[in-house]
Design goal:
The chain is mainly beta. It folds into four domains: 262 residues; 209 residues, Pectate Lyase C-like, CATH 2.160.20; 156 residues, no CATH class; 87 residues, Immunoglobulin-like, CATH 2.60.40. 5% of the residues lie in helices and 43% in strands. The strands form eight sheets. The chain has a 32-stranded mixed β-sheet that branches. Strands 1-26-24-21-17-13-10-7-4 form a nine-stranded parallel β-sheet. Strands 2-3-6-9-12-16-20 form a seven-stranded parallel β-sheet. β2, α2 and β3 form a beta-alpha-beta unit. The longest helix has 17 residues. It is globular, with a radius of gyration of 32 Å.
């Protein structure tokens, strides 16, 4: 966004001449080519209805509207027409406020279509339009001295411009709402159409305080020329893509430049607080005076990459029906949106009560926001009558930072049969994306993708895609019912990577697709620029996945490097193979035990002349080398250190429980991993949060047998002295209850408490006086408020009169 733009020679002079001539035409009857038709509500004019006057008007006529509130949805279908209020004859702005065209929430207040030419609209307030305040499609139009506010639409709350020539002069566009794009103005074109939009530099417009899923005030796409925006007032002094988006056709180098005289509001460079029972008239600067809507909190806060601020969501449920939340919630770059916890903060997506037919419900919106942060909340939906997206973006430069999120029960209606995504975005490798402790679950049955992260366009215009880390994430209990005989079905999880993607301690379980040509998980890389992508998987579990085709594809062109270390692929069912890979592939310390004809397939990539080298070492492969489907021209290095057969999992009562795939004491995978773990870049802990290497040697698979919880050097754990002991809980990991034992060397006051990793007290299990000796307490995974705790690592702390002992435990649901 620039500061001003050079004017053409004598531009201001020409504009003044234009308006002098226009005024003469309006004020001197002898110059008017048509007749004037008056509209008065009291019946003293030619018409009581503006539309009736418009229907009767001929080319060159003027429809003069006297003050009043006209509940109409006007359609202008005559060329060379002036629609004016008394403001045009008197220059008295009071007539703008008193001459109101009220769309009555049924349609646009005014629509100009059918390629009408030379239309003038002057001196009105346009309010309560549904679909927009003013709609202009291939036509030529001048809008002068109008006030456009309180309108709602899918795109373009105030004005929609499609392939039209429009002059905006002295127009105020404010307090409008758009569900998707351009709260104030939305401009686009159909094939072959061109928009020609002019902002008067003398009689300036004002655009401010509009709301939208993207481009709060302005969203212009398919632009075919530069656009100079001369304004008296804009929402902020220096527009960012949060407020104004300009997308040239075919990525041409056109620019939108601003010349702004006043800012409507000053963004606040402080944390903002939001609560379900808050009030958007509050200042939002403390928990004692919170705002009510999340959208308003983000709107007010300043984006500062060097000193990030946070919109804090206090505990409770946020929804449209419960507390008037505004959706979509447009995320702003470098602003952190943080709930109070997965179990205490829930954001519920619901359709707009007036805009809902065949319209997507989007909860959080990411459009041209380079760096967004979302954490510590649950996201779900209800009463969906089309379909819902939890987090949606575009295919332009974004890096995302998601942590401690639970996304569940994202719906589509029974009548909707198309595909949709729970998370959809384009990403860039210019900055690293981080997904930490994100759970997506209980989606479907529907034609759904849990994640679709596709290639995007970087800030420099280059093709790019996600680079980053998925850590401690869970994708489970979801099914896609998409079926087609002509096209491939979309994967449940589809991530396009660029340069590097890492998956650490992630669980993929209970996932299925119905289409016979669909994959369940697809991790690929962009083809251009030419580079070798690196995909790594460490301590990951892939279980109970089903597909008629390949379940998991990892690969790309340009011979990617793929490292699969200490992963378990087990309990998966299909008619083909569990995993297909290509490139330079290294599988180490992993287990493949699935009900598929082949465990692994080498993707030949013959069309790219890129042979695969597959190295498998210290792994357990069902059927051994025979469990690998080979292709000519590729190399498979199958080490003698590998074993085959049954890994003898610990099992249990529920095959869908991740701990089912931990190792039993009889497993041949115990202490049979590589004796030299240097160079494997291992995490220090396994999937259960226990020490990764235990009993002198690493095990195969994602769980280490007999290990105890990993404790970092930063953890405040006090060594246990003789006499007073705090034992490791059992079972660990656990779901949902576990037993904590301890012994006291003398009687006295004792407390036993559960804390989360943020140091917050979860529950006090005991507080009182106890005798010397052994004691035990059962924790059922319930916090002090009676709510079930989420999966994760917790600390339990024993305090006596002179000692404090701490251990960790892992709840794994």
């Amino acid at each position: 966004m620039g500061e001003g733009y050079p004017l053409p020679p004598n531009f201001e002079g020409k504009m003044k001449t234009l308006f002098i001539l226009l005024t003469l035409v309006l004020l001197i009857p002898g110059l008017a080519m048509g007749i004037t038709r008056t509209v008065k509500l009291d019946g003293s004019g030619d018409y009581t209805s503006i539309q009736a006057a418009l229907n009767a008007a001929q080319s060159g006529d003027t429809v003069l509207v006297y003050p009043g509130r006209y509940y109409e949805n006007l359609r202008i279908q005559t060329d060379n027409l002036n629609l004016i209020s008394l403001e045009a004859q008197t220059n008295n702005p009071a007539y703008i406020d008193s001459t109101i065209i009220d769309g009555n929430r049924t349609s646009a207040a005014i629509s100009v279509t059918l390629s009408r030419q030379n239309i003038l609209i002057r001196g009105f307030s346009l309010v309560n339009g549904l679909g927009t305040g003013l709609s202009v499609w291939p036509s030529s139009l001048s809008v002068v001295n109008c006030d456009i506010f309180s309108n709602i639409a899918s795109n373009g709350g105030g004005i929609v411009i499609g392939g039209a020539t429009v002059l905006l002069s002295g127009v105020r566009i404010h307090d409008n709402y758009s569900l998707n794009l351009g709260g104030g103005i939305y401009a686009s074109t159909a094939s072959g159409d061109v928009n020609n939009i002019t902002f008067d530099p003398v009689n300036r417009c004002s655009i401010y305080n509009n709301r939208s899923g993207s481009g709060q005030d302005i969203y212009i796409q398919h632009a075919t020329s530069n656009l100079n925006v001369y304004l008296n007032t804009f929402s902020v002094a220096v527009p960012t893509t949060y407020y104004a988006i300009f997308l040239p056709e075919d990525n041409a180098d056109y620019q939108m430049t601003f010349d702004i005289q006043n800012a409507h509001h000053q963004e606040i460079n402080q944390d903002i607080y939001v609560a379900p029972d808050g009030d958007d008239n509050n200042d939002g600067l403390s928990p004692a005076s919170p705002l009510k809507t999340i959208h308003e909190g983000i709107y007010r806060i300043a984006a500062d990459s060097l000193n990030q601020k946070t919109v804090h969501l206090l505990p409770g449920t946020y929804s449209r029906t419960d507390n008037d939340q505004i959706y979509p919630i447009a995320l702003k770059s470098w602003v952190m949106v943080q709930g109070s916890g997965i179990d205490t903060t829930t954001v519920i997506g619901e359709p707009h009560p007036l805009i809902y037919n065949s319209v997507v419900t989007l909860v959080f919106s990411i459009v041209m926001a380079p760096d967004v942060f979302l954490s510590d909340m649950s996201i779900t939906s209800r009463n969906i009558n089309y379909y819902c997206i939890a987090i949606g973006g575009d295919q332009r430069y974004s890096s995302v930072n998601f942590s401690n999120l639970r996304i569940y029960d994202i719906e589509s209606s029974d009548s909707y049969t198309g595909s949709y995504e729970v998370i959809y975005l384009g990403a860039t490798s210019e900055r690293e994306s981080k997904w930490e402790n994100v759970t997506i679950e209980n989606i479907g049955p529907a034609r759904v993708q849990l994640i679709k992260s596709s290639a995007g366009i970087s800030e420099t215009g280059e093709i790019s895609a996600m680079k980053g880390v998925f850590s401690n994430c869970v994708f489970r209990d979801s099914r896609s019912t998409f079926v087609s005989s002509s096209v491939w079905g979309p994967p449940l999880i589809s991530v396009t990577g660029d340069q590097r993607l890492e998956f650490e301690n992630c669980i993929f379980k209970n996932l299925s697709v119905d289409d016979n040509d669909a994959n369940v998980i697809q991790i690929t890389g962009i083809q251009y620029p030419q580079q070798q992508n690196h995909f790594s998987f460490d301590n990951c579990l892939f279980s109970n996945i089903s597909s008629q085709d390949c379940m998991i594809i990892i690969g790309s062109s340009n011979n990617p490097r793929i490292d699969i270390t200490n992963c378990t692929f087990a309990g998966n069912e299909g008619d083909a193979y569990t995993l297909m890979v290509n490139g330079n592939v290294n599988i180490t310390n992993s287990i493949f035990y699935n009900d598929t004809p082949y465990q692994i397939k080498v993707n030949p990539m013959t069309g790219y002349n890129e042979p695969t080298t597959l190295n498998i070492d210290y792994s357990c492969i069902k059927d051994g080398l025979a469990g690998i489907q080979q292709a000519p021209g590729n190399t498979i290095n199958y080490s003698d250190n590998n074993i085959c057969g049954n890994p003898l999992f610990a099992g249990g009562n529920d095959i869908h429980d991740p701990l089912y795939y931990s190792l039993s004491e009889l497993s041949p995978c115990i202490n049979t991993g590589t004796p030299d773990t240097s160079g494997l870049e291992l995490l220090p802990y396994d999937l259960a949060g226990n020490w990764r290497i235990w009993d002198g040697r690493i095990d195969m698979g994602c769980f280490e047998y007999g290990s105890v919880p990993w404790v970092s050097t930063d953890d405040p754990v006090v060594p246990q002295p003789e006499g007073c002991l705090l034992y490791q809980n059992y079972p660990n990991p656990f779901n949902p209850s576990t037993t904590i034992r301890y012994s006291l060397d003398k009687p006295g006051p004792v407390s036993l408490e559960i804390y989360n990793l943020k140091g917050q007290l979860v529950k006090s299990l005991y507080s009182g006086v106890q005798d010397m000796g052994s004691h035990q307490v059962i924790w059922n995974g319930i916090d002090s408020k009676g709510s079930a705790c989420s999966s994760g690592v917790y600390c339990y702390k024993l305090r006596t009169s002179d000692k404090t002992l701490v251990r960790k435990m892992l709840m794994l649901k």
